[in-house]
Write a structure and sequence with these properties.
Elements lengths: L8 H24 L5 E5 L6 H17 L3 E5 L6 H8 L7 E6 H9 L11 E17 L7 H10 L5 E4 L5 H13 L4 E4 L3 H10 L4 E5 H9 L3 E6 L25 E9 L4 H15 L2 H8 L4 E2 L4 H22 L5
Length: 329
């Protein structure tokens, strides 16, 4: 038999074997994931709302994965410091970012960022939304949002709303409301919401949008009046308080949110595994009960759904940022 008559299949078999050999380490690495601790990068301080939820979910995922889930708090620059650290981390599935509404706001608010939120991250799942609540001091002559809107039209220049600082979600929610109602309310920024609450209760400012959780003690004590919640549906924590949307501004939604993302380029099988396991954890009755107590409304879904949500959030908050004229560097 001559060389020319040799069958071709051995060469193909060798080539296929070499190809499989080259792919094997990557495939094995993905199948073995996780084989070491997984880091949850939280760009806010310990005991913050984001941190509390990350720890609750992280403990359950640690049990599922048989590996520690380490919470790495990296606060600073409105969440941008930790987000940039996550963006520059290896895309091997061992660093997961807990992104929030602050990232959607920062995309427009900051003229210079060390990352691009949509380009540098792969969405995994939205975890939860938390409504804001519009609260008023007892001296405001309104007990409903409709009454408050009528009040602002007659005395807009005297009605002030507080926030935890320029560019925060409670500032921009107030800006969205003011813009839609053409009320022209005056914004009074504070260095954090605790100082704003002091003046709000004392009657030095009229109203403020804020996360429903820190607002509850003042509402329960009767020091502040809840006029409306900012989500599209009523909050289980304040079931008798109507939404802004049902009170005269259809479609109004301005909520805090939190979700999981990984550095862009993380292998899809790992992203799928994290998504599936996170959804399983969020379906656990004890987890649902624990997070519901914080005012969080669980909203898990697919990576594609989360990606669309992020795109819409950036567009929505961009309008509020531009309307307010707020800029940060």
């Amino acid at each position: 038999m001559t060389r020319a008559s040799l069958p071709h299949f051995p060469r193909r078999a060798v080539a296929a074997a070499l190809l499989l050999a080259g792919l094997a380490p990557a495939a094995m690495a993905q199948q073995a994931w996780p084989n070491k601790p997984v880091k949850f990068l939280v760009p806010f301080p310990a005991a913050s709302a984001t941190d509390v939820i990350a720890r609750a979910v992280g403990q359950k995922l640690s049990d599922k994965w048989g590996q520690p889930v380490v919470i790495d708090n990296r606060p600073g620059a409105g969440g941008n410091l930790g987000t940039e650290v996550a963006a520059k981390s290896p895309n091997d599935g061992y660093t997961i970012l807990w992104g929030t509404v602050a990232n959607a706001i920062s995309a427009t608010l900051y003229t210079k960022l060390g990352y691009n939120f949509q380009r540098d991250f792969a969405p995994i799942t939205l975890v939860a939304k938390t409504p804001l609540v519009l609260v008023a001091n007892k001296a405001v002559p309104a007990n409903t949002l409709a009454q408050f809107m009528a009040y602002t039209k007659g005395s807009a220049d005297k009605v002030s709303y507080g926030s935890g600082g320029v560019g925060t979600s409670n500032h921009l929610a107030g800006e969205m409301f003011s813009s839609l109602t053409s009320s022209g309310m005056v914004h009074v920024p504070y260095k954090g919401t605790p100082a704003a609450y002091t003046d709000l209760v004392a009657g030095r400012i009229a109203v403020m949008f804020d996360n429903i959780v820190p607002a509850m003690p003042q509402i329960k004590s009767g020091q502040l009046k809840p006029l409306a919640v900012s989500s599209l549906k009523r909050s289980a924590v304040l079931p008798d308080v109507p939404t802004v949307a049902e009170s005269g501004l259809p479609g109004f939604e301005a909520v805090s949110w939190i979700g999981l993302l990984a550095p862009a380029g993380t292998p899809q099988p790992i992203l799928d595994r994290i998504n599936q396991d996170t959804l399983a954890v969020l379906a656990m009755p004890d987890v649902r009960e624990r997070l519901a107590a914080t005012g969080a409304e669980l909203s898990p879904g697919t990576p594609a759904e989360f990606n669309t949500f992020i795109t819409n959030e950036i567009a929505k908050w961009s309008k509020a940022v531009k309307s307010s004229g707020a800029v940060a560097d």
